[in-house]
Amino acid sequence: LVPPVDPASDSAVGLSPGTYFVEVSGAANNCSASRVEFEIEDLRPLDPEMNLLRFANPTRCAQPVNVTGLLEVRAVGTGALGFDYQWYDKSGIDTVRRTGDTAPLLEGITPTGGTSAGSHTFSVTVTNRLTGCSSIEDYTLVDDILPITVEASALPLTFCDPDSPNGSATAFVTGVPADRQDVAYTFGWSAGDVARTPADSFKRSITNLPAGPWTVEVFDTADPGVCRTDRTVIVGTEQVTPVLEVRTVAVNTNCEGADGNGAAMATVDGSFTEHVFDWFDVDPEAFPGTAPIYTGSVINGLDHGRLYHVRATDKVTLCTAFGTVTIGHAPAVPEPPLVEVLSQQTSCLPGRPNGRLR
User: What is the pTM of this model?
Assistant: First the structure.
């Protein structure tokens, strides 16, 4: 197709590349010459080529700050006047919308957010200023989610009182200064080997723990949707049972009917200052809640032939040990008296006996 041509003109302009025909007719007699074919060639230079010089994906989970993404390209071609670069954000999710930028570098690309790694697609149009020819390329950046490395440890349970456990656990993110641990991250501890929501405690270090597994979930306070990890530690048991020694100090030397005077002593590792010693006349393990008959390391006034029980309790850990003792009997029986007959009975008078002893 040829654009409209003035019949009186011997020229045609504005033709696109292609094959054309021209026919000349006489104005007076309407006779026509043979149709002539001619070709308009496409001698335009090739579109500029584009090379990607460098790129960087935006990061997530980095501390103290994330690294923004960038794209840099370079046009290659015949361009004495240089090239124009126009960047367009095709994803529609990035806040840095660089439209009409004439620089080959697009930077400051922020992460997408959300609960998974997002992507950013950008289109760049390069235009040769001399020829007006252009080319288009698309590039996609993906959020680089950096791992959070957490170290966690636990101290064992040493107290025996079930109402006052003293196990503990702590966690920290490696490579992050101590003064930023609680600012940049949230620590959530849960009892068991699985992180729960909500957690039992939101402290970096927790105390008063019973024995067993404890799991900490650590997440970036600024980007909790994707920047999180967890670790499990075991609070062990290192409760020490006192080594109780019980012995008789004195046997009962009184006879039947008199109060006993036996005595017994209890110690732990030869000492009595770090433990409380409670004495019972019944088994306190079989009858819990029984009140002691005495509290102290040495007990007196014990009868022979009876089984006495003692419980030693560590004053700090409340760990206990039990023992028993039986008091022996060695009554102090006096020697038989020596009797001397001084005189026999010689009087016959009634009511007047005259025998004598000494």
Answer: 0.71
